[in-house]
Amino acid sequence: MSIDTILSQATAQAVKALYGVDFPADKIVPQTTRKEFEGNLTIVVFPFLKASRKAPVVTAQEIGEWLVANCDAVEKFNAVQGFLNITIRPTFWTGVLNNIAADPNFGFVPVTENSPLVMIEYSSPNTNKPLHLGHVRNNLLGYSLSRIMEACGNKVVKTNIVNDRGIHICKSMLAWLKWGEGVTPEKVGKKGDHLIGDFYVAFDKHYKAELKELMASGMTEEEAEKNSALMAEARAMLKKWEEGDKEVRDLWATMNEWVYAGFDETYKRMGVGFDKIYYESNTYLEGKEKVEEGLEKGIFYRKEDNSVWADLTGDGLDHKLLLRSDGTSVYMTQDIGTAKLRYQDYPIDQMIYVVGNEQNYHFQVLSLLLDKLGFKWGKDLIHFSYGMVELPNGKMKSREGTVVDADELMDEMIATARKMSSEPGRLQGVPEDERENVFRIIGLGALKYFILKVDPRKNMLFNPQESIDFNGNTGPFIQYTYARIQSLLRKAEEDFNAANVSAVEPGEKETSLIQRLNNFAGTVLDAGRNYSPAIIANYTFDLAKEFNQFYHDCSILKEEDATVRAFRLKLSATVGATIKRAVSLLGMEVPERM
Is position 490 within any domain? Predict the structure, then answer.
């Protein structure tokens, strides 16, 4: 039982004994005492005033006296207004450490047969270009959130919806037919997603040149766009695709397979994955069926031009288009179809969409539509809305080929890790054959941590050089702390786990470190409640920072008292294990040597 639970239950017993009122223990949540006050944990007594009918400071004093007399964990207390600051008996913290060290899954809630099922959608790429920096943030957030939700005791299904149809796909296909000369990824030794992305850029280049020529002949920009032969060919190709033309469909399937192979390689390297992948080419027809069903039930309405709409004015929104006048679907229709298939495939209790904040309105509408169509989780769907990744030189543009490519970014991060690790004193003792893997772990860890430490709701500026600094709030700093602990443990000659350290009375630094370890379980739950990997990231940095202060101030291997030395080694090992467990929730690895 954790110290928080012990204190919550003891406080509930105190309220019952002193004031005759049953107060639920799970509603009493101890907080870490603020640094300017003496104590380890603080209990807010204002909720008990109705029962005590006394002033806050008097209530805190009475409860504190009862705890000292009746709870073995409590050594002393002080009351400040309505805040009861409690000092835990030092040897009790040793027991807390022993309990954490003995539990390899400390902080994680077990997943059971009856656990709720949470589906998390992330990535959502287009098949006309490779993954870029924006996708990196999306993938890292989605994968980390899936790990956190599972650690909170949920069954999790990680899912992806691939945008594999539409005019943008036809642009790449048409460019390949016109200027590709039969090129394949194998012929040029290039990843398929990169090759297709090149043709998407090529189409835009030729399209702009055509517009310029038409405008030079006297047309306005709008007239030039309407008279573009290239765009007309792309639209004609899309029409053929929708009609099931074999030649177009075969080319589409071949080029998509090139892209999927490239995506898989990027996902694997990034360390993310999916349990189920859906494709919009399969879901848009399902969406049309569902909209037609809603039309028959009077949920939606049809205009004179044959388009289908949803009237959401009663919900404080506007009218939303669901089917165009020619019967073709829009993104909303496809999302409805995807939801239908997912609900058929899984007994979803909660649905989380990891999509940028520019789609806030879209998901507000989708939630209402799914609810009206009878999906039980529709109204409660979660749009994990995150901010954009900004760059020092402005926004990215896929059509112009000015995106920060995910593969190139990972290459750059690993190269930077290799360069910075070559400084004197770095990677001492790491065998040559292990070094490349350590560079990979450091580079990708730096990328993941830098992106995930930021509140997901905020826009962020990505700076590769800053992210890989071995000092400060970075992934490499945390990884170095872990590697330092492993080095310490390798040098230890005794089996510190076998030593009986129960009688050791920890000092102030050690107590503070144990308390921070104890907070890990609550931090995981907090991250799950708030859908925020940043909470885990910043907890881990604080833990690493506090360990380094302890390492600096307290002798470990050179401590003469064997029992104290074993205690400090055990504390160090537990910090290392907790760091590893925490960063696993961010999708990060830690090197044993660094």
Answer: yes
Domain end, chosen from 256, 273, 290, is at 273
Averaged pLDDT, 424-439: 81
Cα dist from 463 to 203, 266, 413, 467, 522, whole Å:
31, 21, 11, 6, 31
pLDDT digits (tens, 9 = 90+) for 101-148: 999 999 999 999 999 999 999 999 999 989 998 899 999 999 999 999
Task: Categorize the per-residue pLDDT at 393 as very low, low, confident or very high, splitting at 50, 70 and 90.
Answer: low
- As for how many domains the chain has, the answer is 3
Task: For residue 39, give the CATH number of its domain.
Answer: 3.30.1360.70
CA-CA-CA-CA dihedral for 253, 255, 256, 257, to nearest 10: 90
Residues 579 and 439 in one domain: yes
Residue 237: inside a domain, yes or no?
Answer: yes
**Long-range contacts at 493-498 (CB < 8 A, ≥ 24 apart):** 494/562, 494/565, 494/566, 494/569, 496/565, 496/566, 496/567, 496/569, 496/570, 496/573, 497/101, 497/570, 497/573
513 assigned to some structural domain? yes
Domain that holds residue 246: 165-273
Which of 431, 410, 169 lies closest to 267 in space, CA to CA?
A: 410
- Give domain status of residue 336, yes or no: no
The DSSP code sequence of 345-362 is HS--SEEEEEEEGGGHHH
